[in-house]
Amino acid sequence: MNGRRYFLNYTSSQWEETCENLNKTIRMIELQRFGRNKTNSKLNKSYDLFSHVDISYLIEPLIGLLRDPFSICPRINSTSIPKVVYEGAVVQSKRSILLLIAAPSFIDLSSTQLINFGNNWNKKDSNVFPWIYRRTTEIKHPKVILLDLGSSYFDTWGSDITAASSLWLHEYYKCFNVKFDRIIAFEYGPLARKTAWNQLPNDVFSIYTLINVGIESNGKVSPWTMLQAIVQPDDHVIVKLDIDAPILENVLINQLLNNSKIHSLVDELCF
Length: 271
Description:
Layout: E1 10-11, H1 22-34, H2 40-44, E2 52-53, H3 69-72, E3 105-108, E4 113-116, E5 144-149, H4 165-175, E6 182-186, H5 193-198, H6 202-205, E7 208-211, H7 223-230, E8 236-241, H8 246-258, H9 260-263, E9 268-270
Parallel strand pairs: 5-6, 5-8, 6-7, 8-9
Antiparallel strand pairs: 1-2, 3-4
């Protein structure tokens, strides 16, 4: 397969009615924090949280609510819901979002067995991540690239520090000892250059490219033009799209879905 995944059959998760399954939300938050760091016995209990397809990887649960359920669902006074989970329940919370880096296990199609990655995957000198496991070609240094479309500043959105996407993604991957090789940020709204650069951590400064113009569906400021110019098939690419322009967003998504030269290069999409 050379790293590409082919969907054969979709199975929904048990997490269909989010507000009625807040106990599962707690487990999702825990899994996002610890991922494959958890012990094998605990990893096996996470399987029912995921939607999945007949490929080699579990995928995120496909649910109706895209906000932290504890921030929008009616508060439940119950001993089964620890009060502490409500402390981080803000509208812009991203703690219920799972990305592939947290994958605790994979499905071996030859045996249909659920196999844990194991604790050795978290060593800082490891360059084998879930998305390149068991590829047919040896990949020693695949790049991890983020395209943040509608980035605002690196660590703030307006005055809301909980809404900063680039910072959250950077810190989240860093928790699993993965560093982005490149971050390309598009932002239509004018940004103060000194503020934009002063917000960058030292380990981000050299890999960060800010394009402070609005993206377009074609031409040199199309994100897909940039994507095809810099990405190799074996790189791992995360695209976040939120530009508050629904018509253009839909055009870009349709281009992504219908053009194999584009979607074959994207591994994770946050939209």
